[in-house]
Amino acid sequence: MNTASGALAALQQRLGYRYTQPELLRRALTHRSFSAEHNERLEFLGDAVLSLAISGLLYERHAGSDEGDLTRVRAHLVREDSLHRMALNLGLPEVLRMSEGELRGGGALRPSLLADALEALIGAVFLDGGFEAARAVVQRLFGEVIQATEVEGWAKDAKTELQEWLQARKVPVPAYRIKATRGQAHNQTFEVECAVATLGLAECGEGKSRRAAEQEAARRLLDALKASDQPGSPLRS
Question: Taking the model in full, what pTM does it have?
Fold first, then answer.
């Protein structure tokens, strides 16, 4: 067994699933910079399969929780940061196929690329073995976290809370824009502005991904709005 075949066999062992169509596994691990037969369509499919599988597991585990709580927990479980950490634990950087230029730029460690590859692997399992096989893989990957999660402990994320706070006061939702991106491609820091134009207010946040920076900016703006929401303020409902 050559090195590449051995690495793919080890990955399948960690996933707990052996592909009957090896070409699906190879495609799931192929970045568009490497070949026209890349993983983006599988990532699209895997995103939907993962969401459905997680939804089913949460529905079974948290029978007394309402839709809003379950939606927030699911969002936390399938967000880029969570998938990135799981992809690292599975050793995906060592088996991804990409161009030399992409490798030199740190692509094998880029959070968004690794998260997409993990979703592509799940999409490939779905095509190879059907939904039950894909659900079993998702359960092996996420089951421990889901079992340990108490829905009541998952607060709304800052962006959701900010939007609901503004809507309750009939204020238009905020706008987000990237102000700066610093660092190398595999280790970037994003600076994002969150602004409510009608109130003339804006706050900035930083993070290792655009989503993380948006959440930090939203949290800062929400804190500022809550601090100003005093009796007599035009923002007070």
Answer: 0.66
Asked which of 123, 153, 183 is the last residue of a domain, the reply is 153
Q: Which helix (H) or strand (E) holds 190?
A: strand 189-196
d(CA 199, CA 30): 46
Place of tokens 């800052």: 158
Other C-beta atoms lying within 10 Å of the C-beta of residue 42: 26
Among all residues, which ones are annotated catalytic?
47, 119
Q: What is the pLDDT of residue 229?
A: 66
pLDDT-derived band of residue 211, with 50, 70 and 90 as boundaries? confident
Last residue of one domain, picked from the residues 106, 131, 153? 153
Residues 84 and 200 in one domain: no
84 pLDDT band, cuts 50/70/90, is: very high
For residues 167 and 138, membership in a common domain is answered with no
Q: Could you give the CA distance from residue 107 to residue 101 in angstroms, rounded to a whole number? A: 9
pLDDT tens by residue, 212-223: 899 999 999 999
